[in-house]
Structures are given as C-alpha cells and as structure tokens.
Amino acid sequence: MSKMIFHMADYNNRFRKYKRRLVYEKDKRQIKNNLSFLLYYIVMLNNKEKLGAFIVPTGIGAKIGGYAGDASSWARKFSSESKLIVNPNVVNAGCFSGITDNMFYVEGYSLDEFFKGNLNLIPSQENKIGVVFDKSIPDDVLNIHINTMRAVSCVYGINIMGYEITENSVGVDFELSDNGVSNGSIADINTLLEASKKLISKGADAIALVCMFEDPEELNIDYANGVGTDPVGGVEAILSHYISKELCVPCAHSPAFADYQISPDLVDAKAASEYITPTFLPCVLLGLSKAPKLSKLNGINIKNLDYLVMPYDCLGSTPVFEAVKNNIKLFVIKENETALDITVERLKLNRNKSICIVKNYSQCFELIKKL
What we know:
Order of helices and strands: HHEHEHEEEHEEHEEEHEHEHEEHEEH
Strand content: 15-25%
Number of helices: 11
Number of domains: 2
CATH class of the largest domain: Alpha Beta
Largest sheet: 6 strands, parallel
Helix content: 25-40%
Shape: globular
Number of strands: 16
Strand order of the largest sheet: 5-2-1-14-15-16
CATH architecture of the largest domain: 3-Layer(aba) Sandwich
C-alpha cells in the first residue's frame, strides 16, 4: 500500500511539473498537441493496441503500390488490426484515398527521421491545410484545383485555411533511369519554401504542394497497363521531403497537368484512379487532414513500433536498417517486387530473427493478427 501511495505521489509531482512546463510554452498549438498526445497514448496503452508501419516507396515500380492507390486495400485491412503508419504513396489515389482514421499519413523524410528516433508523431484529425500552387500553372488549371479544394472542404469538412501562389515558377523536371527508377530536378525549390512559410505563419498545420508537370506518358507508355514505374514519383518525393525537412510539418505533393481532359480509354485497375479525374489533389488533402503533427519533444516514437512491412527487394532504406537495429519485426513481401534489387540476401541479413520473408500480403496479415 505504501508503495502505491509513493508511486501516486511521484506521478502527481511529475504531472504538475509537466503542466508547469507546458504553461511556459510560447506556442499554444504545442500545448494542445502535447495534451492530445497524452490522451491518445493513455487510450492506446489501455487498449494494448499494436502500431505498425506499411511502406511502399514511390518511383521504384513496385508491383503493388507503385501506381495509384493500389496498395490501399491491403493497408486498410492492416489498419483494422493496428494503428498503421503509411507513406502517401500507399493510399494516394487521385480523387480517391485509402486513408482511414486508424492510419498516420507520413511522407518519406519524416518517416526516416521517425525511424532514426529524431522525430515523434502526435495524432491529429483536424489539421489546417495550406496549399501552395506553382506560379507556372495556367489559370484554367488553377481554377480546377481551387474548385477541387472547395469541393473537398464542403464534402468532407476539411479545414483548408488558404493558398499561396509561388513568386517564381518552380521548374520541375523528371526522368526515368534505365533501371526503371524515377528521379528529377527542381529549378527553384526555394520559392516553394517561401510560399509555405507564409501559410505556416497564418496558421497552417500541413502543406499541400501543387506543381506544374509536363505530360509523363511518353516516358512510360505501359504505366496505364499497370507495368513499370510512375515517372513522376521520384521528383514528387524530393519536393515533399524538402518542405518537411525545412518546416517540420506534414507535406505531400499533387502534380498539375495542362491537359485535364478525362481519357475514355480503358486502363489497368492499378492505374485507373488517375485516369478518371482532372486533378489528384483530393487524396493529398484527405491524407494531410489526418496526418500526425511532428514533434522533437513528445509523441509516438520508434520504441512504440511493433512491426514494419516492406516490399521484397527495396530494403536499402533508413526504416529497414533502423527496424533491424531496434529488433522491430520486419515483414518482407515476396510478391511485391520493384525495379531495385536490394534483398535480405544481398544485405546478408538472412539469419536475423526479426526478419520474416512472407509470400504475400495475405500471409503477412495473418501473422500480424497473431503478434
């Protein structure tokens, strides 16, 4: 009994100190974030809920998740068993989104920092989203995107607090290498940063980027047939990585194209969601509305993670190396091959007991239910 009284007294003292520290926080939003996390964390612990990460890197031609939301159905299934961290590529699907209330939408740079232990995630469901438009977007294309913002806000109740147009053209260029990996360059990435800063200063919690792109069809004419690599995926990742790194906020990108006519041609189901809409902005807005806030102080961290799910041959990444280092269960999906060839065998991790190579996502899901 005396031990219990001691622990309660110790807890009360710590809580009082914690509250005093919060009072002196200059940023009131940080106070709200910390309290929100405390409530969430208590519920998560009480329910003994698992936390997983389901990643399919963009721009590497993944057979599942390399197109337009085609990994969503599996991610949604996994999120029925645990809280699930997903990168935008997993759930983004043009005018659709695979996001659920049980998912954390986190772009690549922030994911790497999370796995390194440098960044924590604070659950959030009502982010204020600011949208940055590339100056080079023509007026007719811009109007379609503004109407899209208004529609998503009206239908879903998402808080889109405003938009900014960059002072200069961003100048996005992209390419597809001989080995099937997409990449690219940005002429003036700083103009995106300055516009993003304006939105953050006005109260935005998350940033959606919309840059002008040339038609990528010629680089991979088989993309519509569910074959090969999305040519724009690599440079899109560069854009969102940069803003997340500089501003420590959730960020995702949606490309804008001059030709917004909807094609009547039949395409593969994996790519279909991108062929029935003139804009891909809805999925980004839906994802960012539920993206966790990013904190270097408090929140969900790498120590809370129970498992990571990755495609078979793209294992040369920070999440994989950090998961192995921290003895986090790593499920490698053999059916999901990519343009890369970085496997468990090539990394000489065959004997690592925390790694489990499974045939498909179905088998993986059954194993996760037993964790």
